[in-house]
User: What shape does this take?
Amino acid sequence: MSVKQPVSVLVVVHTAALDVLLLERAGSAGLWQSVTGSREGNEDLLSTALREVAEETGIRAAPDSLHAWRLRNRYPIRPEWRHRYASGVGANTEHVFSLCVPPDTAVVLAPGEHQRWCWLPWQKAAAQCFSWSNRDAVLMLPSVLPHLQPHL
Assistant: This one.
């Protein structure tokens, strides 16, 4: 496995009614989250977000359907995941995006990465998120959406 970059995306996938897609991490019962993932190579953050959404959910989104929140979170990398990063790397910078999809959008999980998925109303989804940054992004969703422009 290659060394992960300490730069990632968080993509809150939701419907117009603000139902939020959550994914349960494989091998980590109870760790529910939105789409997340690290940048690979020199890809830009939009490309990272589109790739991660496709890899983790099977959803092929158009670049102009993704919204960049211009919000970054910095947090310590969990000790059990530090071996994935270069020696001495202890923090990650996460960039937040959102993607609105129709309520009947099919979800196909990446084998070995997630074990279950569900749609929840935004308040319940926020309460299920294991990370504070994911919880906060979901809680911000209703107030942020009217101000977002597609990522161009």
In short: The helical segments are 45-57, 122-128, 132-144. The chain has a mean pLDDT of 93. Residues 4 and 85 are 5 Å apart (CA to CA).
